[in-house]
Amino acid sequence: MKKFLLTSFLLVSILFIIAGCNKNSSTNQSNNLNENKLESSNTLMDKNKAPSTKESENLKEIRQSLWSNSKDNELKSFMNTWGQTMNQTYKQYSPNNNVDLYGLQLPDSVLNNNKWQAVIGNTPIVLNWSESGEEESGYSLVAVYSDAEAQDHLSKHVYFFTINSGVPKVLITSQNQGNPNNYLYFKETENKELRDGFSNIVNSSVTFDDAKSNFTKDEQLSYFISNYDQLPYKGYLTTEINGNGTRITYYVDESIPNDKQAISEAIEHLKAISLSVQQKVGEGITVSLKEPLETEYTLTLIDGQPTQANHIFGRIIQEVSNGADISRSESSDLIPSKFKGNWRIKNRGISFILEDDNSRMIFGHDTTELSNPRMEGEYLIFDSNFRVSGSAPIIYVSIKLTESKVGIISFENDRGEVVTHDFLENDR
């Protein structure tokens, strides 16, 4: 009996031990599962956090990468190559390491509220030296290059490489004189290779149109001029300051030919520039055409409409406004019968043959065609290309009859000068 009880006790004890082991094992497995779940959960949380942290770092990198030492070195290499293509030698400058531009120490003279003020057009701008290209306001000046040490007098250039609102801009000055306001005038460079080179180095995602509202009208005009690449004639656009504000002037290298078609085309070309600046900058901006050796503007437009013209351009504009077809050739119904026939200027050796299909002027042995006849009031007017040696070419001939066989004749040259003879006689 005792043996049976002992055996039963041992059996029960073993069962309890086994059950306890199983329970501990189950508990351990449960704990391990919980730990695994917690670890997995923490890992998942870390993974979820990672993109946010990485994104912030990327955004921070983008904000801080507008300018850096590596980009500064890229610009240095670019300026060395670009300078060689321009046959110029450029050196880099910075605060406390200035270039002498006709006695002006740059960049220090226009930084930190020093005596000189940088302006674009007639608008003062804020310039701050920057290592990152990210200043709170104004232009972040990240680099200065100049050829002043190598160039002849009056041929020196200073370039300010700037970033404003994320937009890279290369400003240039060659100013060699002072002024009462101590203004140092800058404009955006018109050299596309230089603009594009700096822009590619900065590699900003911000375009001028994105930040346009941050720039003044003068700054927008400067940008317009430097980027307008559709000039029909050799020459350049520039801004000029006058009592009425800033105007854009198109200086052409060669005079516009004094014929109707060429003048009409020039009017349309300037109109295209005027309408473009109206669209991209704003209304009410004066745009003028200036020919070489002329003291006055050839033509001036505002918002595509003429406001001033010299005598020759004004005549064409008047014809267009009156509905005349400026490209038409001679037509028989434009010469009234009372003008037809042979005429001569008494004692001058100049005669005229006015016919429907072949009007001409004869001076000595030279014959000049008279084209495009039209009536303006009492005057019959022809286009001409008659030239006397040593004199300006005659481009208009005007005839007015005072009696049936007597009249007056006027010659107008390409300078707008008019000579009139009142002894025209009819030889009919």
Summarize the helices and strands and which ones pair or pack:
Blueprint: H1 2-64, H2 69-85, E1 91-93, E2 99-101, E3 104-106, E4 117-120, E5 123-124, E6 127-129, E7 139-146, E8 158-164, E9 167-173, E10 183-188, H3 192-202, H4 217-227, E11 235-242, E12 245-252, H5 260-280, E13 286-290, E14 299-302, E15 305-309, H6 311-321, E16 341-345, E17 350-354, E18 360-363, E19 366-369, E20 371-376, E21 379-386, E22 394-401, E23 406-413, E24 418-426
Summarize the structure.
By secondary structure, the protein is an alpha+beta fold. The protein has helices at residues 2-64, 69-85, 192-202, 217-227, 260-280, 311-321; strands at 91-93, 99-101, 104-106, 117-120, 123-124, 127-129, 139-146, 158-164, 167-173, 183-188, 235-242, 245-252, 286-290, 299-302, 305-309, 341-345, 350-354, 360-363, 366-369, 371-376, 379-386, 394-401, 406-413, 418-426.
Structural features, described:
With 428 residues, this protein is of the alpha+beta class. The chain folds into three domains: 69-211, no CATH class; 228-321, no CATH class; 337-424, no CATH class. It contains six helices and 24 strands. It has helices at 2-64, 69-85, 192-202, 217-227, 260-280, 311-321, and strands spanning 91-93, 99-101, 104-106, 117-120, 123-124, 127-129, 139-146, 158-164, 167-173, 183-188, 235-242, 245-252, 286-290, 299-302, 305-309, 341-345, 350-354, 360-363, 366-369, 371-376, 379-386, 394-401, 406-413, 418-426. The strands form four sheets. Strands 19-18-17-16-24-23-22-21-20 form a nine-stranded antiparallel β-sheet, with no helix packed on it. Strands 1, 4, 5, 6, 7, 8, 9 and 10 form an eight-stranded mixed β-sheet that branches. A hairpin with an 8-residue loop joins strand 13 and strand 14 (299-302). Helix 2 (69-85) runs antiparallel to helix 3 and helix 5 packs across helix 6 (311-321). The relative contact order is 0.06. This is DUF4767 domain-containing protein. Residues 1-19 form the signal peptide. It comes from Enterococcus gilvus ATCC BAA-350. Keywords: Signal. Residues 65-202 form the DUF4767 domain.
